[in-house]
Amino acid sequence: MANQPVYKVIFHNANQVFEVFARQIYQSDMWGFIEIEEFVFGERSQILVDPSEEKLKHEFSGVKRSYIPLQAIIRIDEVDKEGTGKISEDAPGSRSNVTAFPVPGMQPHHSGDD
């Protein structure tokens, strides 16, 4: 049996950037969403605990499937093996070189410094 692929999904959620690993990802039947299933969290060592990954485990505990809006997705990679998921804060007023594509029917978000 071939190894099941692992995907690294990076997306915006509120003022944070989530980086999660999952075995299943596909376009949802619900328009404008990506579905993520079978989250993978590192079980490497109980000696070292990464607070960011622990926060992710808590955030997604009991979640069977997560629906992420397309405009929140930053990047999706198929990777050789899972890594350590993390949550990082978006710096207020920071300029990123990553911008979501405009979606028809949705108003663009303005930061107020027009």
TrEMBL record:
<protein>
    <submittedName>
        <fullName>DUF1820 domain-containing protein</fullName>
    </submittedName>
</protein>
<dbReference type="Pfam" id="PF08850">
    <property type="entry name" value="DUF1820"/>
</dbReference>
<dbReference type="InterPro" id="IPR014949">
    <property type="entry name" value="DUF1820"/>
</dbReference>
<feature type="region of interest" description="Disordered">
    <location>
        <begin position="84"/>
        <end position="114"/>
    </location>
</feature>
